[in-house]
Design goal:
The protein is of the alpha+beta class. 35% of the residues lie in helices and 21% in strands. It contains ten helices and 13 strands. It is globular, with a radius of gyration of 20 Å. The structure holds asparagine (ASN).
Length: 325
């Protein structure tokens, strides 16, 4: 059953070649301008803060295991052989960020294409796409609080500047009044407290309740997120936007050899895929870092209020639907 049949109120995002009416084309034009402005504004903020902009890679022996993660829903992992070696399509540049920030570029960011073949039923969430771009950044020696401050400044600036410079486009898609100034610092909530209060639906419940962005911390997930082994608490975070949901996730990172090995073994992660960072950790070359990745289509989805974030892509990547382009 296709998404359209199941929920006739959600129109599937169309590819550029399928847009025919003036209204459709004007809407896509406004969204395109907002994407361009968002990329320019965010990258300018990071460059002003002394970050180096790294070009992304797409095929690599090491990529994000995306496991264990309470939100993982991967139908298929893309692995091919090139030059006699197995490589994977990039799920996130986390490993490259850890190496980059530990060695040559202590403050780095990249605009990275990530490929995650989500289960087809995620086509209906309006929040998942099987190819997306993240503004992924990492800072040597940073704490979670340092990362919060960087993100809060970048997003507050973006919303303020958008309302000033792109009023015409925001009005055209009826989002000018819906977008309000962000008030920093954002509230910090613990996932355990939310589970105790709302149960398993905490994500939807909190998104419906908040009127400003909130940080959610202490989420059990991949080996590279920092965990305090004495308290079992995770020093990691997701950023949730009101009436929308998650737009960013990140953490302080593990860098100690013994902890990394213990977590990889516990999680059943294939150590041979990560031999380089394991070796670096063993030699003390992996440094303490912290960082995060902001989903570009998600933040633009929040700004534009689209029903499906694939509407922010020129060539939509809705799980379960493969278009010729
Ligand atoms: N970009 C995320 C981070 O920095 C990782 C991810 O996308 N899974 O932690």
């Amino acid at each position: 059953m296709t998404l359209k049949e199941e929920n006739p109120t959600i129109n599937l995002p169309k590819s550029l070649d399928q847009l025919t009416t003036t209204q459709e084309i004007e809407r896509k034009t406004a969204i395109g301008k907002i994407v361009t402005y968002t990329l320019k504004n965010l990258t300018t903020t990071y460059i002003k803060e002394d970050f180096q902009w790294l070009l992304p890679v797409v095929l690599s022996q090491s990529t994000d295991p995306l496991w264990p993660d309470p939100n993982a829903s991967i139908e298929k992992r893309i692995e091919i052989d090139i030059y006699g070696k197995p490589v994977r399509a990039m799920t996130s540049m986390i490993v490259h960020k850890l190496v980059g920030a530990s060695t040559v570029y202590p403050k780095l960011f990249t605009l990275a294409p990530n490929i995650r073949i989500e289960k087809a039923d995620r086509g209906k969430t309006g929040k998942h796409i099987y190819e997306f771009t993240q503004l992924d950044f990492e800072v040597q020696g940073a704490t979670s609080k340092d990362i919060f401050a960087i993100v809060e400044k970048a997003l507050s600036t973006l919303i303020k500047d958008l309302k000033k410079d792109l009023k015409h486009e925001l009005l055209a898609i009826d989002r000018f009044d819906a977008l309000f100034a962000l008030e920093s610092p954002f509230k910090i909530l613990d996932r355990e407290d939310l589970e105790a209060k709302y149960g398993s639906t905490w994500e939807e419940d909190i998104v419906a309740e908040i009127s400003q962005p909130v940080w959610i911390t202490n989420i059990p997930r991949e080996f590279y997120d920092f965990q305090d082994f004495t308290t079992s608490r995770w020093d990691n975070y997701d950023l949730f936007m009101p009436q929308f949901g998650e737009v960013l996730s990140g953490s302080k990172r593990e860098y100690e050899y013994n902890k990394i090995i213990e977590k990889m073994e516990q999680h059943g992660v294939r150590k041979e895929n990560y031999s380089l960072i394991i070796q670096m950790a063993k030699e003390g070359r992996l440094k303490p870092t912290a960082g995060a990745g902001l989903g570009i289509e998600r933040i633009v989805g929040y700004i534009t209020g689209v029903r499906h974030i694939a509407e922010c892509q020129p060539f939509p990547r809705v799980p379960g639907i493969v278009h010729q382009l």
